[in-house]
Amino acid sequence: MFPQLLFVYINSLRTCFDKQEFCFTNDFNISFNENKLNISTKKNPYIGLWGEKISDINLIVGKNGSGKTTLLDLLGSTKNRRMEMLGKPQRDELGKIIFEEWFAVYHIEEDIFVIEGHNPNLIENLENIPRGTSSEFSICIKYDFKNKKANYLEYIQSKKQGEYSLEKKLVSLYLTNNRDRDWFSGNVIRKEQDIFVGFQRLYLNNPQLSNIYTFLSKGYKGIDKGFTAKNAICVLERKLFSDSLNKWDSDITNVIKLELYKDKDKILLFKNDFSLEIFQSGEENKGEEWTTKEKFTIKLLESTILDLWLNIGKNELNYNVECIKNIDNILFPEDNFEARVDYLLQVVQKILDALKPEQLMNQTIYNLDFIKEYIRVLISINEIYFTSDRILSVNLNGNYNEEIYDLLALYDKYVECEYQLFHFINIKFKNMSAGELELVSGFANLYAVIQVATHNKKIDTVLLLLDEPDAFFHPEWSRRYIYNICQFLNNNDFEREVKFQILITTHSPFIVSDVPKEHITCINVIEDPSGNLNREVKSAGFGLMSNFYDIIKNDFFITSPIGEYAKYIFKDIVEKISVLEKYDENEIDILKEIISSIGDEVIRIKLQKLLNEKELELLPEEERIKRRIKELEIELNELKNTQGGESND
Fold first, then answer.
1. For 59-203, where are the alpha helices, taking DSSP H only?
2. Which of 8, 270, 496, 586 has the most Cβ atoms closer than 10 angstroms to its Cβ?
3. Least confident of 43-47, 326-330, 354-358
4. Where's the Endonuclease GajA/Old nuclease/RecF-like AAA domain (predicted)?
5. Does residue 6 register a pLDDT over 90?
């Protein structure tokens, strides 16, 4: 069985929600009345609607500020962030403790459910809860459908579901709407772990660089032929070593007593890498015998060694006679690329051996295995990608390259350890618009979803929480989003059976017409006579294949994909079409002219269709017959032409 989120009840949450219910299933009728949880089964007509691997897709729509993000924060945040959101318990005037109370219900199998939330005593028909259960809880229950009672079974981490404990069976992956694009700017990405005892929560805000590369080089071709980032590039830049120096003398060669290659003049890093004369040896720079890739690699290793010596060693290595002697004893019989790399890696090892443990921070800053692996992958990359001894540049519209992927995957693997090598390597993606950036980030994150589902055999269900994933999309990308995400997940081989449940917040009218109204929850903000704002949560009156105009006219979509005056014109056109009661050729021609001037193809075509349908409806019967005869004559001629062409063959 595949765990699935069914229902959320928020009794109180700051000033946002008060006694609000959210239902995300068609398998059950669920409600929470008079502090009692009521569950009954029902027939679901939408089983299999989203494909074999997606159990359900639900939308939450509403104006900005309606609370869509607050709901996903509650469901998807790690424990520390969720507790900050809930705040500390307070006491009322009578001294009674007041909690921010909520709970979520997940279905496991048959009559077995999981309830997570804050304050289990909120549910009065939940029986046999152990004394001492914490305010934040995650428990497994057996529901008595006949008597409407929930009976405690055990804590979720104690419940076995096959080979693994139940809390391992579902993972929530949350793409928030305040995500930074660190990967685009070259900033190092960090992860955050969850310490909650229930279903685990992870964030999708930071896509792996290898996944971004995969999507940009080949992944987008399978979902959106109209993707326009034709000039996108990935740039790996070796930073100047001078940027990392904490302090230096008038001549760096006088600062260190390290005789690399037994001849400091052979250090390539001193040639061209420093613009100041004080770093020059006085001779003309040499090094033409090295290829661009070789210079890139050698200078990277030399930067690593000098950083270890000057910044990590804090000048102490200048007085470590044994270390200097060990380095001097390293053989360097010939000067070629392979010999230099082998020599420099041995120097790194001698320095690491000489440094104190506290200087290395348990070797989490520098790791020889990582450096060796990084250099090995770097050497395997084709020379054509090295545009200078500082720049490796990849055109992402070209063919997928396994070595480039391996290099970025290695970065992803070790970046969490904060290895000092990253101080010399900066990776950026360039030449993308805001919309392209958003599309790439979203689908690159989905590769992480695939990796989670494929490599963690404990997980049966992945709950995807996507907060306004289409916020910066072109309307056509929004219109295709549900289709694309279904194609993306259903067409991947996970090597085992796994289900995805997707919960999306949006205020885009282009998405909702792909989802049945039973799968859409609307949050409205209503101002009462006293000026207080209240949230109203209800099912949608629109959905799958709904008329575009009924959707966009709805108050839930305050943020329109068009300008405010254009929106006024749009509504005016729809209104004029709808009030036409008799055929008026002049009025219809005027409307056709206005519609033909609309730049957005999606909106223009839909308005043209609406007007054509209205025009046909208003035509006199005799005229309708004439038009129908004309259509049939055209169709008959086409058939005759086709038949004639076949006869001539």
1. 68-76, 79-86, 182-185
2. 8
3. 354-358
4. 54-512
5. yes
Tokens of 20: 């609000």
The pLDDT assigned to 282 comes to: 41
3-state SS assignment for residue 4: strand
Q: Which residue has the tokens 């995400």?
A: 485
3-state secondary structure 330-389: CCCCCCCHHHHHHHHHHHHHHHHHHCCHHHHCCCCCCCHHHHHHHHHHHHHCCHHHECCC
Walk across the sheet containing 461-467 and list its strands: 200-203, 170-175, 461-467, 499-506, 54-62, 520-527, 533-539
Please, what's the largest Cα pairwise distance for the chain?
A: 107
User: Which of 59-73, 86-100, 382-396, 445-459 is the most confident on average?
Assistant: 382-396
Quick one: pLDDT band at residue 585, thresholds 50, 70, 90? confident
Beta bridge partners of 538: 522
Please give the Cα distance from 247 to 238 (Å, whole number). Answer: 20
- Whose tokens are 């996944």? That residue is 211
The token pair that represents 37 in the structure block: 């949880």
Closest to 183 (Cα-Cα) out of 157, 215, 149: 215
For the chain, give percent helix, strand, coil, nearest 5: 40, 20, 35
**Rounded CA separation 102/104 (Å):** 7
pLDDT at position 476, please?
77
Provide the token pair at 217.
């080089």
pLDDT above 60: residue 75: yes
- The encoded tokens of residue 579 equal 């009030």
Of the candidates 377, 421, 422, the one whose C-alpha atom is nearest the C-alpha of residue 401 is 377
* pTM as predicted: 0.74
Dihedral (CA of 634, 639, 644, 646) sign: positive
SS3 assignment, position 548: helix
Q: How many CB atoms lie within 10 A of CB 491?
A: 11
- Residue of 226, 228, 234 lying closest to 183 (CA atoms): 234
Confidence of residue 419 (pLDDT cuts 50, 70, 90): low
The answer to whether residues 133 and 121 touch, using CB atoms and an 8 Å cutoff, is: no
Burial state string for 164-198 with b = 16 or more CB within 10 A and e = fewer than 16: eebbbbbbbbbbbeebebebeeeeebeeeebebbb
Nearest in space to 102 (alpha carbons), one of 153, 146, 137: 137
